[in-house]
Amino acid sequence: MGDPVLHSVAAPVDEVTDDIRTLVADMFETMDTAPGVGLAAPQVGVGLRIYTYSYQDDEGQPWRGVLINPELWMSPPEPGSPDPDDESEGCLSFPGERFPLRRADAVLVTGTDLEGAPVEIRVDGWRARIMQHEFDHLNGILYIDRLSDSDWKTTQKIARKRGWGKPGHSWMPGVDDLDA
To answer: Is 134 a catalytic site residue?
Structure first.
């Protein structure tokens, strides 16, 4: 959470090269190993506007892909406090913790895929939450930045206790023990 790339606006991808394809393959591997439902390039130290996503719906149907240079439109979130049971989310940049956060229930995301083909995604529910969460990463926003004051203060205490929030402090999914 302390790495400057996580708090900076990511740059557009000018051209999909073999290096970009390798990055995306590595991102899918990291996301799956973590395990996570989304991963933005800044989370692996690359300040580019790319994110991957993977989710199974209630019927077990897979939903997986990559978005390059995404644009996001959303409905306004409903007013009120988030439900801690139904609206809590976590993040691989603040691993092992979950906090309630109100998000818009529906989004439209456009961008391109690895072949440069246009992509348009209209989703709601958890899929919309994933799109908003990953899009935030591309704008230098962690979900903990959007929490209520009391939950944000809790995240800061956790970060201090675990020694997080310092540039260069990272973890490798599938390799590092978060409890150590």
So the answer is: yes
Q: Are 53 and 1 in contact (CB under 8 A)?
A: no
Mean pLDDT across 125-145: 96
Are the C-beta atoms of residues 131 and 121 closer than 8 Å to each other? yes
- Rounded mean pLDDT of the chain? 91
178 inside domain? no
Domain CATH number, residue 158: 3.90.45.10
Reference 91, options 48, 142, 27; nearest CA is: 142
From the candidates 15, 78, 87, 134, which is the catalytic residue? 134
Residue bearing tokens 């402090």? 169
- Report d(CA 87, CA 138) in Å as an integer: 21
How far is it, in rounded angstroms, from Cα 148 to Cα 144? 9
Q: Which two tokens stand for residue 45?
A: 């130290």
Flag whether 78 is in a domain.
yes
HSE-up of 47 (CA within 13 Å, CB side)?
12
Q: Is residue 63 part of a domain?
A: yes
Which domain does 149 fall in, by range? 4-162
pTM score of the predicted model: 0.91
The total number of residues shown for the chain amounts to 180
Confidence at 60, pLDDT banded by 50, 70, 90: confident
Nearest 10 degrees: CA dihedral of 73, 70, 5, 17?
Answer: 180
